[in-house]
Amino acid sequence: xxxxxxxxxxxxINLCKELAHHRDIRVTLVxxxxxxxxxxxxxxxxxxxxxxxxxxxxxxxxxAGKKNLQFxxxxxxxxxxxxxxIILNNGELQYDALVFATGAETNYFEMENxxxxxxxxxxxxxxxxxxxxxxxxxxxxxxxxxxxxxxxxLTIVVAGGGPTGxxxxxxxxxxxxxxxxxxxxxxxxxxxxxxxxxGGDALLSPMSVQSQSDTLEALTKLGVVVKLHTRVxxxxxxxxxxxxxxxxxxxxxxxxxxxxARQFDGISVESYGRGRRILVDEYNxxxxxxxxxxxxxxxxxxxxxxxxxxxxxxxxxxxxxGKNLAKNFKQQSKGLALKPFSYKDKxxxxxxxxxxxxxxxxxxxxxxxxxxxxxxxxxxxxxxxISYRNRVQTFYNWMVAYFSKDQSLxxxxxxxxx
Length: 418
What we know:
alpha/beta, five-stranded parallel sheet, 11 helices
């Protein structure tokens, strides 16, 4: 059985892991990058507390020794379902089963100026670009004589009050407190702010009221200016415009406000639901298709009784769907009955700063905050990294950062434009 998987994120890589060494199944993973990376720690790369290599791992190294797994570097251009074939930017592949595991991309809500000028927070490339941009702006501020321009260079606006927005704004607040004062004496007297803005009425809206209030209190103590009921409408001329008429002058708008799935040439428009997510049945099969599947953020499954509006676009859903689909492929190869997908919510968490985090566990209903929640967040994220090398490297960097309140990774490294 020839299975082609498009995308090597949480969903795709877990599907491949479960099918490794299965003698009746051969899997080809297609991805535009030659590495898997860990999105929950993207913001730590962007703020120079981790190197990209700490949260990424090459697919080919991961597949080494697994004879039925192979990797293809490429981008999907078109699907031809009637021929069981996909067209890539560098060739084509035949399949017996096709699996979309392409995740989601940044959603700018049709605001072109925001798309062109804001700093996204979705890929490893985004994180490196953000690190370079922020460090360059700090260096510019250090030699700028105009007080208003210096404030623009140092002011940071984070749009989006979900886990990414909360985590990155907390990190910036701690950097301003512990690092700028030591390394940039020229900027000690310059006023600057970290703003976290969201159009809703609470931060971390999917989490408990306790977590929302704990997070708001902790961020406020760190010096983050939290603005709720504040929706971004435009970003031009270094000015963020809001629906309520307010504006903030800044050269740093970090966009963590939403995601949407991708659409693919060859998949009919009727196959997509809310957020451009592919509509699938209880087995993650594309409705109306015999051998096309979708898992993770890119699919919308309305058959799970506990989640009639669809599953949240979080890592655990992607991981569990990848594993369940792999089991069904094994069952299918043996002619046995398939198992419908049912999501088991293991809880949610967000880190706010040093010794500060919130954790919600649904069953039994438990809420944690402060140091215990922070330790739980560190442990879960550490063991979730794909390789032992990633875990050791990340743990070492975290220990250095914890005891020194600093990290020595703030290099501006970028390729020359030839």
